[in-house]
Amino acid sequence: MARAPTSRIPLHTALLPPAGVAAWLAFGQAGLEPLALLLAAILLGNVLAAVHHAEVVARRVGEPYGTIILALAVTVMEVGMIVALMLTGDPNPSLMRDSVHAAVMLVVHGLAGLCIVVAAIRHRQAEFRVEGANAFLAVLIPLATLVLVVPNFVVSVPGPFYSPLQLGFVSLACLALYGAFIFIQTGWHRDFFLPAGGDSAPIAPPSGRIALASLGLMTLALLSVVTLAKALSPAVLEGVRAAGAPVALVGVIVAAIVLMPESGAALRAAAANRMQSAINLALGSAVACIGLTVPTVAAVSWWLDQPLELGIAPGGTVLMLLGFLVAIITYGTGRTNLLSGIVHLVLLAAYVFYIFAP
């Protein structure tokens, strides 16, 4: 039996997008530090509002277009934040590398680990489809390797950089892999990503009026996120420097903000014993992060004539590949338990620790 469709728009998701644009117009370019916390709160609210409205539109249009809309909404937010920081102060060629690396580690270990622990505490063991989890890993592992590891070993350009030709090829490869994954997920093998018993309570689509209003509010919310990110960029960079933290922490902040809405949805799904939905949300966000963000930011960097430092350090490479090996073991049985969740959380802790103590 279908659950009731969305019949109204929550008030806060309707008020936050115009409030974000108004705040940016009024204060965003003034550089007033006392307002930084207020602008940050409005930005985070608009991240949540944008994803909410994207989900409403996605339910209206159905698959595969709904998945594409959700991915594009998250990508616009991440790209907007990265480009805003790229345009602020001194060039930061490693920003995209740090944010993509952080997104992979936060998803594979942080979000997935928390989902496994929550499901284990509530239900002891959680079941999911091995085929779906393996499909995510089959795309995520080569994407992460091509973007974050291979640049350290090519010889056309010294250092952890790609030549323009190589970066163009990798960008096309990311798009091709993401497109092929979307085709499989929404077409030929859609059942790989559904619960074993099917969707017992599908969500009925919202009305056309609600969907159209959400489309407009989603666009406004994304505009608010991008503009407020640009306004807050100097404060973020200055705060990281003032705290004596590594610059790589900026990438972690960007990734955490972008992943925040999907994290809440994934944890709720895990608590309700819907581990397949939690995996779809968690690993799907990492696949979209690399598959769509890297080509977009690469195009912007070419237009701005700014290099992109992509290769991660040897220690980070070992830790990331170890994480993928553990993920293969975790998702290879179709069941998760508390131990596997704790292992993933320990690996996340190691990643964060080595940012501050490389």
UniProtKB/TrEMBL annotation:
<dbReference type="InterPro" id="IPR004837">
    <property type="entry name" value="NaCa_Exmemb"/>
</dbReference>
<feature type="domain" description="Sodium/calcium exchanger membrane region">
    <location>
        <begin position="214"/>
        <end position="356"/>
    </location>
</feature>
<feature type="transmembrane region" description="Helical">
    <location>
        <begin position="281"/>
        <end position="304"/>
    </location>
</feature>
<dbReference type="GO" id="GO:0015385">
    <property type="term" value="F:sodium:proton antiporter activity"/>
</dbReference>
<feature type="transmembrane region" description="Helical">
    <location>
        <begin position="338"/>
        <end position="357"/>
    </location>
</feature>
<feature type="transmembrane region" description="Helical">
    <location>
        <begin position="210"/>
        <end position="229"/>
    </location>
</feature>
<feature type="domain" description="Sodium/calcium exchanger membrane region">
    <location>
        <begin position="37"/>
        <end position="186"/>
    </location>
</feature>
<feature type="transmembrane region" description="Helical">
    <location>
        <begin position="133"/>
        <end position="155"/>
    </location>
</feature>
<feature type="transmembrane region" description="Helical">
    <location>
        <begin position="99"/>
        <end position="121"/>
    </location>
</feature>
<dbReference type="Pfam" id="PF01699">
    <property type="entry name" value="Na_Ca_ex"/>
</dbReference>
<feature type="transmembrane region" description="Helical">
    <location>
        <begin position="34"/>
        <end position="53"/>
    </location>
</feature>
<protein>
    <submittedName>
        <fullName>Ca2+:H+ antiporter</fullName>
    </submittedName>
</protein>
<keyword id="KW-0472">Membrane</keyword>
<dbReference type="GO" id="GO:0005886">
    <property type="term" value="C:plasma membrane"/>
</dbReference>
<feature type="transmembrane region" description="Helical">
    <location>
        <begin position="161"/>
        <end position="184"/>
    </location>
</feature>
<feature type="transmembrane region" description="Helical">
    <location>
        <begin position="9"/>
        <end position="28"/>
    </location>
</feature>
<keyword id="KW-1133">Transmembrane helix</keyword>
<feature type="transmembrane region" description="Helical">
    <location>
        <begin position="310"/>
        <end position="331"/>
    </location>
</feature>
<dbReference type="GO" id="GO:0015386">
    <property type="term" value="F:potassium:proton antiporter activity"/>
</dbReference>
<feature type="transmembrane region" description="Helical">
    <location>
        <begin position="65"/>
        <end position="87"/>
    </location>
</feature>
<dbReference type="InterPro" id="IPR052946">
    <property type="entry name" value="Alkaline_pH_Ca-Antiporter"/>
</dbReference>
<feature type="transmembrane region" description="Helical">
    <location>
        <begin position="241"/>
        <end position="260"/>
    </location>
</feature>
<keyword id="KW-0812">Transmembrane</keyword>
